[in-house]
Amino acid sequence: MEDKYKIREIFQMFYQTYRDTHTVTPEQESAAQCIMGCKTGMYGYTVSICPDCGKKVIHAASCGNRNCPSCQGTKPEEWVQQRSSELVEGLPYFHVIMTIPRELHPLCLSNPKTMYRLLMQSANDALLEVSSRPENLGAAPGVVSVLHTWSQNLELHPHVHMLVSGGGLSSPCSFKRVRNDQFFCPAGKLAGAFRERFLDGLKQIREKHGLEYSGIAESLRNHYAWQDMLTALYQKQWNVFIKETFNGNGNAITYLSRYAYRTAISNSRILDVSGKGVTIRWKDYKDGGKQKPLFLTGEEFIRRFLMHVLPKGFCRIRYGGFLANSRKKECLKQIRRITGTAERKNYLAGLSAAERIKAIFHVDICKCPVCSGHMNLYHMRPEAMLC
């Protein structure tokens, strides 16, 4: 089996059986069909023909689905280049991770769009609220947030990775920077604000009858069970982790790109596939981060994978603070004027797909493997190949 397409083979082997015995959402069905058809010719072909020697090379097109680990291609580097122009030269950047407790997982399974939207909004609001306090930063930093819903073993683990600038605008003419390149507040203070924001929002959603209670969340229809859960969550210390400080323009955003375009599992972590099931490699953080094998039946692997397919139209990358889309351009202009820094140019801007591949991977897909001439690329529909 080709290492590059193990995920496709797994779905081709086990998905039909899984679908016959489980309920799947339209988004999950779409993702599964895309993965099974990826690079099989279902989505057409790219045909390269050398006009000098006549050499012909045919490649099956990818599905392009954001849940397919075979289809990320140049997207991470393109995103890095787009975001790099928004970094402030010489400013430290921090990686913050905010996680919701396990008690909320049943509601996430029943209400993914509502709960994940609340998670991302609460994390952003809490960070900006704490940073605005005079005793902390006293300004609004730039924030890039990326939603992840999985753990290393593919179980449900909703959390947000956030890239936070070590400085921000306190007024149109004032830019404040963190002291000694240290994060502007303790993790515990940020965790408390995150907990309050999230639970207040959750109560409002319930009061407006905006929650579904299916599966293991069924018990939360009961008023007393709901109150017991809320009481426990208010008393619990929520997990907020401030990882590290980045130095150097571009290092932080390059690091975050690994999270921005990562799927629930990559093909490289799939160790073996057989008629009995799938063996994956996972990192056990409770055991010092040791790499361990984990065997899952085919249906269980499909269940865990599809659990992380987001609702249609849900944006898992969001921007806040001075990087909020509505004010980003004007804020960056003010910051560069105050700090005397220049905008970093995007070297991929305006390039064709073939030129981007050459710039990123140093592979010239237009170069003929026989005579080194320039090959012409043609995109063809599946039915055209049958003519």
Write the layout of secondary structure elements.
Elements lengths: L5 H16 L4 H12 L7 E5 L6 E5 L14 H10 L8 E7 L5 H6 L1 H21 L7 E11 L5 E16 L2 E4 L9 H21 L15 H13 L3 E8 L4 H10 L9 E4 L3 E8 L5 E8 H9 L10 E5 L6 H12 L13 H9 L14 E5 L7
Helix pairs in contact: 1-2, 1-9, 3-8, 5-6
Structure overview:
The chain is of the alpha+beta class and 387 residues long. It is built from eleven helices and twelve strands. It has helices at 6-21, 26-37, 75-84, 105-110, 112-132, 187-207, 223-235, 251-260, 298-306, 328-339, 353-361, and strands spanning 45-49, 56-60, 93-99, 140-150, 156-171, 174-177, 239-246, 270-273, 277-284, 290-297, 317-321, 376-380. The strands form three sheets. Strands 3, 4, 5, 6, 7 and 11 form a six-stranded antiparallel β-sheet that branches. It starts with 5 loop residues before the first helix and ends in a 7-residue tail after the last strand. 33% of the residues are buried. The mean pLDDT is 90.
> Termini distance?
30 Å
Residue fraction in strands = 15-25%
Spans of at least 5 consecutive residues whose pLDDT stays below 50 are none
Helix content: 25-40%
Question: What keywords describe this structure?
Answer:
single chain; 387 residues; alpha+beta; six-stranded antiparallel β-sheet; three-stranded antiparallel β-sheet; 11 helices; globular
